[in-house]
Specification:
Blueprint: H1 12-22, E1 31-36, E2 40-45, E3 49-54, H2 60-73, E4 84-88, E5 98-102, E6 107-108, H3 117-133, H4 159-173, H5 179-191, E7 200-202, E8 211-214, E9 217-221, E10 228-230, H6 244-254, H7 258-279, H8 284-303
Antiparallel strand pairs: 1-2, 2-3, 3-5, 4-5, 6-8, 7-10, 8-9
Helix pairs in contact: 3-6, 4-5, 4-7, 5-7, 7-8
């Protein structure tokens, strides 16, 4: 499944070749596909390791951020996060950095794995509170740090590409969704003053695929490729991927104010709309996830 124009082809043969060159002691371990997201392809290596390979060369900086900062952030968090154990270097066959992590047992958050959605929402809020409260340890939101991802910034600069994505959604989903209402929610967020509080650490992509569950409860948060320093509004957007009980528990646990919620909802609309527009032909499962988010947003607005 190719998603991007400059995508690097990846398969088991390539992964074994990389291991033979750089970690020969692991090259003979069992290797099995372990999923793929919009930015990375994963392979389980033996029982205890995970190989993560960016789809494109420019996504390599996401792995460098994880290797630098996750070991320093992990002590502040009560759930597991990825533990880097090898920093893979580019080769002629694979011109991007890649990483090996400790394997984390757990299943993706969903109706078959979560026992109590209200408790899950509260657990997620606890993780977010702890991450946002962790000291910056010298990190800053600067271009050279790699921690300046757009989701920690202002809404307004994103209108140049989110507005056309909403237009695309009108053509693609207009018979099923009230796109005018979605546009109104995006604009409501734009109309508010941007937050002025201090910057903090942000995960950036707390979608269910990045939330692992064990025994019905949140046990790990993975894929910190969107790790950044900035304002927290966009962090809350992913709660519209979850059922209403989780969303309400999350809101209550964090005590979010109305302005923050409106900006978070605008982020949720914008990111989902752009996902539908960009991945409509190449990644139907992710488009379905974005459609679910938009459906929850509209239902939530009707209920409030």
């Amino acid at each position: 499944m190719t998603l991007h124009e400059n995508e690097i082809p990846v398969g088991e043969t390539l992964v074994r070749s990389l291991l033979k060159r750089q970690r020969p002691e692991w090259a003979g371990l069992p290797l099995a596909a372990a999923g793929a997201g919009t930015d990375n392809t994963m392979y389980r290596l033996g029982d205890d390791l995970l190989v993560r390979l960016p789809r494109t060369p420019d996504n390599g900086r996401s792995l460098r951020k994880e290797r630098e900062w996750l070991p320093r952030l992990a002590p502040f968090l009560k759930v597991s996060v990825p533990e880097p154990v090898h920093a893979g270097t580019p080769t002629e066959d694979y011109p991007a950095p890649w990483s090996v992590y400790r394997w984390i047992d757990g299943a993706e958050a969903g109706p078959d794995t979560v026992r109590d959605w209200a408790a899950f929402g509260a657990d997620l809020a606890e993780f977010v509170r702890a991450l946002h409260a962790a000291g910056l340890m010298g990190a800053s939101r600067s271009a050279d740090s790699g921690l300046d991802w757009y989701r920690g910034g202002a809404l307004a600069p994103c209108d140049d590409w989110i507005a056309p994505s909403l237009d695309d959604c009108r053509a693609l989903l207009g018979e099923e969704f009230d796109v005018d209402a979605l546009v109104g929610m995006w604009r409501a967020g734009l109309a508010l003053p941007e937050p002025s509080g201090p910057h903090g650490w942000l995960h950036g992509d707390l979608r269910p695929a990045n939330l692992l569950v064990r025994d019905g409860r949140l046990c790990a948060v993975i894929d910190f490729g969107g790790l950044s320093v900035g304002h927290p509004d966009a962090e809350h957007a992913a709660v519209w991927d979850l059922p209403a009980e989780a969303r309400q528990a999350y809101w209550d646990a964090l005590g979010l104010d109305e302005a923050t919620w409106i900006r978070a909802r605008a982020w949720a609309v914008g990111v989902a709309a752009s996902g539908v527009a960009y991945y409509r032909d190449g990644f139907p499962a992710f488009v379905a996830e974005c459609r679910t988010r938009l459906r929850h947003i509209l239902a939530d607005a009707r209920a409030r």
